[in-house]
Amino acid sequence: MNSNIQVMKGVKSIRDIDITGKRVLIRVDFNVPMDSHQTITDDRRIRSALQTINYCIDQNACSITLVSHLGRPKGEYEERFSLRHIQKRLERLLQKRIEFVEDFEASQDEISTCSLERVFLLENIRFQPGEKKNDPELSKKLASICDVFVNDAFGTSHRKHASTYGITEFVDVKVAGFLMMKEIEAFSKALETPVRPITLVVGGAKISSKITLLESVMQKVDKLIIGGAMSNTFLEALGYDMQASFYEKEYIETAKNVLAEARKNKVKIYLPVDLVITDSVDHPIDVKVVPSQDVLEGFSAVDIGPASVKLFQEVVELSNTIIWNGPMGIYEVDRFSKGTYKLAGAIADSYAYTIVGGGDTADAVDKTGEAENFSFISTGGGASLELLEGKVLPGFENLDRVKSEA
Ligand code: ADP
Ligand code: 3PG
Ligand code: MG
């Protein structure tokens, strides 16, 4: 069972190879949550990459190039998504000067020249139109500036992009970083030898990229709690009028399929029974709690209500393994954060093995001060859900293996 995890555990880690004197390219996931002034609100993803970066420095790698995306730009420069916003925090955490590379094509020669102690940070790789298309030309260019490719971007390991996947075709030595190995170990415990019942809690706003996965997790989980904007889509699918709430119309059919799959597999689904609604998300004047059936005309559902919190708390208390991705509401706004924070408290208080994942969800958990009371905080949101599906994540797929299979 879950042999996908065994496959992923079998990749070589950076510790299995010699990187001294080598040019190392590390794909990291610095896609951190930021406020409207581009201030990082949670630097966990940066901190999580430090072990691998420091290891390369300590092993005297001849140059280290860090590659990441930030947000979802459309293949061209956008100031708010520039990795310059990350540079200072990274320098502070690493206690080292980082050289920012605005145009990596123009700087290829400089990066390729061996010079100990230099750490480069490339500008957002998604500013390159070839990144999301997994363009071999971009993969080749990235490969040309390194001898060793280290994938440590667990949060992006479900993406088949040039810097997470395509590059492996053009580099001879490709291994996983410490974070990738740590993450897979934690999920192995939850999924390979699970203590049942297993509850999956899903919320957040990335509906299109996560909802289809839910159809395929039914064999793995016993209970499914759905909140946040994700549940708006399900409630609309049940025939409730969600008014101005954020949901995705094109995925209503998928939501119906998820409900049908759950019935077929005897997986219990819990949706919010009440909601916090507002007349305006940005400038709320009128905020009310209503049954999920009664969202007022022109209002948006922005958090789960107190009755839903109670219901979800009871489910959580009866679970032995809990995997959570996606906030229950717009937790960045104080008035709409209660559902997420209370659920975080309930999961933290439970006696279950608990994994929480996702940039925003981990940020929310940190804000509650409950982070210590989770068994594991994953940097993966969508990636952890795809793991549940039973897939070998593309970011692991082509890495070198410890033993070649017969
Ligand atoms: P993660 O980063 O943990 O994987 P997502 O990126 O999928 O999670 O979702 C996080 C975002 O979801 C947050 O910015 C939050 O404001 C938003 N969100 C949650 N509930 C709602 C809702 N009801 N309406 C609009 N946005 C929501
Ligand atoms: C995430 O935040 O889940 C990862 O960084 C991947 O981002 P993406 O969903 O934009 O590919
Ligand atoms: Mg997010």
How do the strands and helices of this protein lay out in sequence?
Blueprint: H1 3-9, E1 23-27, H2 44-58, E2 63-67, H3 84-94, E3 99-101, H4 108-112, E4 118-122, H5 136-144, E5 148-151, E6 173-176, H6 178-191, E7 198-202, H7 207-215, E8 223-226, H8 228-237, H9 252-264, E9 268-270, E10 274-278, E11 287-291, E12 300-304, H10 306-317, E13 321-325, H11 338-349, E14 353-357, H12 359-368, E15 376-378, H13 382-388, H14 394-397
Parallel strand pairs: 1-2, 1-5, 2-4, 3-4, 5-6, 7-8, 7-13, 8-9, 13-14, 14-15
Antiparallel strand pairs: 10-11, 10-12
Helix pairs in contact: 1-6, 2-3, 7-9, 8-9, 10-11, 11-12
Bound molecules: adenosine-5'-diphosphate, 3-phosphoglyceric acid and magnesium ion (MG).
Magnesium ion (MG) binds at residues 358-360, 381.
Protein model, in words:
With 406 residues, the protein is an alpha/beta fold. It folds into 2 domains: 4-181, 3-Layer(aba) Sandwich (Rossmann fold), CATH 3.40.50.1260; 194-388, Phosphoglycerate kinase, N-terminal domain (Rossmann fold, 3-Layer(aba) Sandwich). The protein has helices at residues 3-9, 44-58, 84-94, 108-112, 136-144, 178-191, 207-215, 228-237, 252-264, 306-317, 338-349, 359-368, 382-388, 394-397, and strands spanning 23-27, 63-67, 99-101, 118-122, 148-151, 173-176, 198-202, 223-226, 268-270, 274-278, 287-291, 300-304, 321-325, 353-357, 376-378. The strands form 3 sheets. The chain has a 6-stranded parallel beta sheet with strand order 3-4-2-1-5-6. It starts with a helix and ends in a 9-residue tail after the last helix. Bound molecules: adenosine-5'-diphosphate, 3-phosphoglyceric acid and magnesium ion. Adenosine-5'-diphosphate binds at residues 203-206, 228-229, 232, 246, 301-302, 325-327, 329-330, 332, 358-361, 381. The site of magnesium ion has 4 residues, from helix 12.
